[in-house]
């Protein structure tokens, strides 16, 4: 859906991509870049056995090798990214979590449809430094298979802790993985994350302006590696599961000379593959695509194309609109994120024709409107607002009924993009500025650009309790762009 928006402009970007020698150096002065092969261990995989995914997880400060640089980061079990968790529908997840940071933290299971209460996906839990808490929940037996992730979610500290390195994949394996063509494909995970380090390898504290824009870093990594290489065999099908685990950075991806065949969005499978040239991923979003090894053997770059998400500056006392990125870095040329290299060949694998049907939700009982923008608050400076209010833990902003189907109209009257994310229940994009979505997909995060009205449809299924919705530019969330929702019987 967001992806298709760019199809019309693909030729412009394609030519820009092939003409531009993509030599932008990502390296900052004063540090030497050593081979990106000399790396920390890849994220370990923890898969469930006999219906239980049990593990110990610890958040701590660690020295890690990040793209050849000694970096002092926040890590889960010492790994950047954190361990990859894999479970199946119906499994019980039991995660003994220890906070070895000097700040409180907690865990959120982004995109999972599990209870937001108790010791489950409860973002109101606070785990003080030095303490341990056991998270435990059951993944419903009809839970969609898909690419989800986990990260800290303690209001006020989310951006800082995620930017510091705390994020990992949470995979639910199920019916999508059983489709023969997909099962035959070679699977790769791409967790996209940016960092900004000082000369000593420490994470740079953002300026107030960078926080308002949403902090970004110039060191862009995939699975903790800088410009990694992936191999693709002639005739092979490659399945890429891509997660934008960055605090604020958007990615507009294109693989030279190769279209992407979209097979899944945030919340799981589409009903059939959709061919796209580019993928726009805002913070929090995921996508799964197939790539065919059908080109001349060689090397093909995975490019990140420029994208203007708007911004603000206080220059001249006024607020600037799109194009002005106060306190942030503006990318003007395509950057290479990874290289895909052809290896030997295999028997030619076909694309799947059908995937998993995506349910059509009934007409909504209720339509709500959420206006998102920012403003000045006395004594607080810039605040980020939903319906004129900044987040308060003492307030329930939205009360909904279990099993209700609702449409939410998200209206952006500000100057920057805001990727709106809702916990627990995913949704479908109905329309963008009145234009119907070209296909149905389950999402949990959707970009709303300035001047846009985005209409989404959701059903509050299975779970009651309090949870949140917020902008997934996590600095905006920490600066107040979050609301509490209560689902009741
Ligand atoms: Cu990925 Cu409320 O967050
Ligand atoms: Cu979430
Ligand atoms: Cu925002």
Model description:
The protein has 489 residues and is mainly β. It has 3 domains: 177 residues, Cupredoxins -  blue copper proteins (Immunoglobulin-like, Sandwich); 133 residues, Sandwich (Immunoglobulin-like); 123 residues, Cupredoxins -  blue copper proteins (Immunoglobulin-like, Sandwich), CATH 2.60.40. It is built from 6 helices and 31 strands. The strands form 6 sheets. Strands 11-10-13-18-15-16 form a 6-stranded mixed β-sheet. Strand 21 and strand 22 form a beta hairpin. The longest helix has 10 residues. The two termini are 33 Å apart. The N terminus is likely disordered.
- The fraction of residues assigned to DSSP E strands is 35-45%
Structural class: mainly beta
Compute the separation of the termini in Å. Answer: 33 Å
Shape call: globular
> Per CATH, what is the topology of the largest domain?
Immunoglobulin-like
* CATH class descriptor of the largest domain: Mainly Beta
Let me know the CATH homologous superfamily of the largest domain.
Answer: Cupredoxins -  blue copper proteins
The tally of structural domains comes to: 3
Give a short account of the largest sheet: 6 strands, mixed
Rg computed from alpha carbons, rounded to a whole number of angstroms: 21 Å
**Helicity range:** under 10%
């Amino acid at each position: 859906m967001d992806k298709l928006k760019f199809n019309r402009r693909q030729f412009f970007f394609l030519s820009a991509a092939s003409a531009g020698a993509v030599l932008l150096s990502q390296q900052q002065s004063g540090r030497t870049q050593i081979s990106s092969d000399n790396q920390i261990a890849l994220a370990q995989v923890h898969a469930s056995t006999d219906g239980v995914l049990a593990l110990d997880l610890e958040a701590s400060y660690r020295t890690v090798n990040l793209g050849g640089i000694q970096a002092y980061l926040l890590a889960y079990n010492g790994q950047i990214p954190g361990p990859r968790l894999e479970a199946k529908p119906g499994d019980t997840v039991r995660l003994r979590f220890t906070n070895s940071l000097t700040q409180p933290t907690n865990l959120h299971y982004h995109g999972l449809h599990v209870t937001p209460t108790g010791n489950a996906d409860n973002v109101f839990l606070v785990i003080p430094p030095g303490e341990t808490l056991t998270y435990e929940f059951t993944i419903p037996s009809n839970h969609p298979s898909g690419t989800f992730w986990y990260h800290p979610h303690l209001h006020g500290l989310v951006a800082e802790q995620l930017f510091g390195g705390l994020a990992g994949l949470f995979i639910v394996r199920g019916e999508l993985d059983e489709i023969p063509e997909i099962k035959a494909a070679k699977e790769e995970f791409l967790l996209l994350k940016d960092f900004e380090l000082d000369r000593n390898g420490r994470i740079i504290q953002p300026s107030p302006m960078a926080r308002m824009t949403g902090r970004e870093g110039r060191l862009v990594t995939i699975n903790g590696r800088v410009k990694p290489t992936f191999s693709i065999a002639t005739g092979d099908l490659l399945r890429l599961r891509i997660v934008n685990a960055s605090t604020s950075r958007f990615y507009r991806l294109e693989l030279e000379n190769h279209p992407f065949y979209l097979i899944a969005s945030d919340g799981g499978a589409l009903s059939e593959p959709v061919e796209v040239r580019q993928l726009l991923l805002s913070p929090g979003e995921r996508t799964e695509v197939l790539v065919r090894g059908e080109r001349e053997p060689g090397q093909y770059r995975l490019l990140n194309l420029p994208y203007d998400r708007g911004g603000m500056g206080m220059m001249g006392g006024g607020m600037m609109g799109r194009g002005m990125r106060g306190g942030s870095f503006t990318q003007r040329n395509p950057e290479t994120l990874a290289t895909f290299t052809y290896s030997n060949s295999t028997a030619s694998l076909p694309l799947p024709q059908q995937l998993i049907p995506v349910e059509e939700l009934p007409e909504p009982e209720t339509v709500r409107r959420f206006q998102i923008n920012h403003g000045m608050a006395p004594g607080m400076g810039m605040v980020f607002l939903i319906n004129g209010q900044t987040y308060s833990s003492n307030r329930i902003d939205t009360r909904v009924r279990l099993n209700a189907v609702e449409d939410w109209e998200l209206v952006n009257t500000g100057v920057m993009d805001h990727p709106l994310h809702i916990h627990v229940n995913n949704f479908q994009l109905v329309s963008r500025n009145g234009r119907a979505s070209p296909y149905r997909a389950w999402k949990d995060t959707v970009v709303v650009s300035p001047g846009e009205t985005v209409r989404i449809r959701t059903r509050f299924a299975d779970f009651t309790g309090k949870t949140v919705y917020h902008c997934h530019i996590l600095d905006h969330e920490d600066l107040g762009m979050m609301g509490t929702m209560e689902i009741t019987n």
